[in-house]
Amino acid sequence: MTEGARERGKARRREAILRAAYQLFAERGFEATTIADIADRAEVSARTVTLYFPTKLDLATSHLAEFTDRLGHALNHREAGTTTLEALEHWLRADLAENPGDSEFDALWETMLDRNPQLRAVANSRLTEAIQEGARIFAAERGDAPDDFGPRMVAATAAAVVCELYLRPTEAHLDAAMSFLAAGIATLPPGQLS
Predict the structure, then answer these.
(1) H runs (alpha helix) in the chain
(2) Summary mean pLDDT of the chain
(3) 175 CB contacts (<8 Å, ≥6 apart)?
(4) Residues 129-156: pLDDT tens digits?
């Protein structure tokens, strides 16, 4: 078996485990679902599940964690002279092309969160952390403090815009979103806005 085939097999198993977990969390609830239940639904061993995801919480939050990790890496490792907004746009264009989304999987993710308020709370907490990181990055670019109003407002708005783009990932929407963010940023006064 070639390395590429092996990696594709791992990716398929990983996705099968995620889908099984999200289906079961939506149907039975997070607490009532066991690793053995997930393994059975995904047609893998319980050990395989825990090799990919050490805990049920890792399983439940991996969709958001992977997304925020990819975005954080893109913003933190942008080329010199590239603004945060330029890095965000470049990353969005590449990510939407590489990960066009799976509306069925995204709907399953939302259903799982709707039926498990404790998971929604964890997801919201992680999203808040990502927004704070975005505010820190944008503030550093402008010379503001990360908890100033301007950077926090830009980061929160960008998060909302990004969420909408993944629900409606078209070129026209991406162009409109970037124009919207650029126009909003342009209205911020220079320096700190506490």
Answers:
(1) 3-28, 35-42, 46-52, 56-76, 84-98, 103-115, 117-142, 149-167, 171-186
(2) 86
(3) none
(4) 888 888 898 888 888 888 888 888 888 9
